[in-house]
Write a structure and sequence with these properties.
Keywords: DNA-binding. By secondary structure, the protein is α+β, with helices and mostly antiparallel strands. About 20% of the residues lie in helices and about 35% in strands.
Amino acid sequence: MQTPLQITFHGMDPSPALEARIRERTDRLERYFDRIVSCRVIVEAPHRHGHQGKLYRIKVLIGLPGGVDLEVDRNRPKDHAHEDPYVALRDAFDAADRRLQDHVRRQRGDIKHHEAPPLAHVARLFEDHGFAVDGDGNEVYFHRNAVVGSFEKLTAGDEVRLVVAHGESAAGPQATTVEPTGRHRQAAG
């Protein structure tokens, strides 16, 4: 870490045992991502409110390269497990671990981006099924139950997105989902 770990206690005396646990969890963060620029942890013991116990609030602020800041604020007033500062600390650092792991995955490009289903056009319609032609010219069967929205509103030439299950039918590809895009293509004459 470029900047030393900062630990602040509000509404309570500093605790060497809690500080040691914070340092231990921060070290674990650095083992996962060794380019952490700074880390600040705030431990706050709010005043008593009515029947509620003394619930601890833990804030973890992590500075990363490029001016990226991750903030975890575990302020859950209804979570009575946070009457124990070690449980509140564990939950805050578990959340910080997840946020840091997500950040690293995004930087590496490990997060999957789902492509939209391919486009097709309705070719023919019958009473309870139809056929669409995909961009490669393949004819795909679909049943009325696969249509998102109203099967009755479909017309020949409507553009649709298809989720196709290959090998489901001996007769060829079958769409499990047919979602109209709202566009219509005029039939070639």
